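CORE FACILITY INTAKE
Project code: CF-77B
Contact: R.S. (postdoc)
Sample description: multi-component assembly, two entities in total
Requested service: structural model of the whole complex
Turnaround: standard
Below are the sequence entries exactly as provided by the requester. Do not edit them.
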Amino acid sequence: MAPTFLCPQETSIMCCMTHLNVERLKERPRGTNPSRDSVARHLNHLRPAILVPALGLLLAACSLPNYGGYKGATTQGHDTHLLYAGLFTTAIVVGGITLSLILWSVFRYKKRSDAMPRQFQYHIPLEITYTVIPIIIVLVVFFFTVGVENKVDAVSSNPYVQVKVTAFQWGWNFDYPQLHVDVHGVTLQNPEMVLPTGKTARITLVSADVVHGFYVRQFNFSRYAQPGVINVFDLTIRHSATYQGQCTQFCGLYHAEMLFRVKSVPPAQFQAWVHQQQATGHDKAVAKQPSPIVKVRSTNSRTKI
Amino acid sequence: MTLIEEKAAAPARVQSRPEPVHHAEPSGLVKWLTSTDHKVIGKSYMFTSLALMIIGGAMALLIRAQLASPHSSLLSFQQYNELFTMHGSIMIYLFVGPFAFGGLANYVVPLQIGAPDMAFPRLNALSYWLYLGGSIIMLLGFFTASGAADFGWVAYAPLSSAVNSPGAGPDAWIAALILTGFSAIFTGVNLVTTIFYLRAPGMTMFRMPIFVWNMLVTAILILIAFPVLTSALVMLYADRHFGMDIFSVKGGGVPVLWQNLFWFWGHPEVYILALPFFGVITEIIPVFSKKPIFGYKGMVFATLAIAALSTGVWGHHMFTTGVVLLPFFSLLSLLIAVPTGIKFFNWIATMWRGQITFTTPMLCAIGFLITFLIGGLTGMFLASPPVDFQMHDTYFVVAHFHSVIFALVIAAIGALYFWWPKMFGWYLNDRIGKVQFWLLFVGVNATVIPWYILGLHGMPRRVAVYSTGMGWHALNIAATVGADITGVSFLVFLLNVYLSWDKKVPAPNNPWDGTTLEWFTSSPPPTHNFTRIPPIRSERPVWDYNHPNAVAIPAHTNENNDKHASPPTGADDDGGD
């Protein structure tokens, strides 16, 4: 696949600007600034791609601005973000050209006299041009879409941890079947799913009643939880942090308060958390033998944002 | 000469009929209640849908007020859910569509093809009364014990089941949509038949105005899509009351089937809403640029391509369900950009080297182009499944389709200013119209642009409250201000109607140097539209008639348009009266 989506490190808009200055950089004497030198070498490496303008534009996607989106806290979300940035660039180019043509014709051909304009109606080569160029753009967009889609939807055969997420009116249940841990919370209790950083977590998403939406904004990802459908996807969180999630598919009265959190911790801490949960969960299960239908176990007391 | 034969043909046909028995022409309320005249029905549709739009718009302003101060408890959750459900339902089911295919098409299509009325005038009247009845039933949902429907305008199963949404309000919503569904189907049948069978002599398919072409394709899309929605609603009703369990897992049904059926209607519906207004723009731009539409045939084929593609893209509303074939729906959705792009460039090329006058309709056409451009480009993001995973059910989606629908609303306002002199015989004030346009254009974009950013910052749709810690408050206030400006623009419209009615400026038959047949007859037109019709030798018969000495479009560029074309020089002189 295109190297666009394999950009090894987070780069900033500065990188994009140095791309443009590649020729000027090369004229400087080597070795004056070691970091610049390495940038120049890095760019030299990319040079063949820059020669192909369309591909070069897409290659530069790792140095494109954020365009207001999240860079993606998961590896999957990061791929999505790069695609998003590429699409945004395409939209700016296409939209900019179209808008300029609209505004140009509006201002340039404002009525200036009573002369009758020439009555022309067809120009077949022009019409073919503006049919074929959009088709090419669409095919390029589709090509990159399929590449990213396959990565985002890929499910690892060997996940580090598996979580069964059950959405219900109005709350979330996070069940770790292999680990015998179960986290449950309704609406504003904000139940928390703990995941290990840098490891692949397989999420199995189901619904107990109506259609819900599992969504964490920093993950650039959402998926429906639906009755009758079992959805499986992977999340590989890149940085340890706590992320706010929310139901996005309207599910009834308390939809707006159907919140949850995803807390990403290093694997060692994750194991500690699991052991702690196994202990307390066992205690609680013993204590509440005739448990209510909806067991409410908030995680609010344990974590603070 | 063929044109003399054509002129003679029409009266001969009329005389061969038995002499109709003339009753005294009713007036006032009785006329309105009993009329089968397409012009009366068209106006009824337009003003009913505009009234509903004002109701739906008022709901939108309440929703915006709640979101600008989310912890003010202005609205309860229940009220909020009912309001956004009914806002969406009114705007989509009862305003934009009926205004276009019920109102504009009904009024304009028979005039543009030189027909005396629609093919089935009584069916046409039935369509309107079904629509009015359905609309009233939907609004009456607010007065039931359970309140109005509160499951969103998409009514996803199983949230719309009898268990999750009990009560008469949701039932009223379903019943209303079954009625308006039949209304739309009847209108579709009527339009297709009218356009195929009632064209005036000389009006070949490739001489029809683009508006008529677009209405023909819209009507065909109605016949493809609306029966699916209407039967799905009957199934939903049966699920709720007769235990059919079509959409419930418990009884062996498939909830996601509802989404498939709904969006199989829902995506063609987008083009059922949009194509008529594409047609409106295609009428307005050439008239005020003093040029023929550029790429007439390209326009027709682009419309057909959009319609064909639109029946195969419903899955892009369901990317996040995990049960649709992503690449198929993605590619077809992206491909819709191609014919839409052709239309855009044709509109631009029509203005190119023209003599553009900036009346209110023309300003609305330009406002439409810019607003729709934003809506179209953001559609590309949502057609790409990974990016759709990011945006789905956030305010980005809300912003995207509001850009599109607002563009259509701007075009609708343009259509009103454009055809108002024809409908009533007097103008709407152009200066106030421009004030309205600018308020509307600025207002809608000030509403949607904050929404795009909110969507990127992860604000989900259909939430009545949000935590101030999420950083969404300021943008919501901006959107509310934009929505209020939009609201003011409609007050200016009502004011304009009143002021223009109070001091009427009479309009001639052809106030804009229009090119199509409706501008040939009187303003307003007589009961059966035409007492005479000019020869029809191109898609601009009235232009040909009024500009007999204009240099004709070079023959080689439109040779297929007119098999009987005379040599270009002096060809139009004999059309004079």
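Facility notes:
- Residues 87 and 221 of chain A are 17 Å apart (CA to CA).
- Chain A touches chain B through 85 residues (CB under 8 Å).
Invoice: internal transfer
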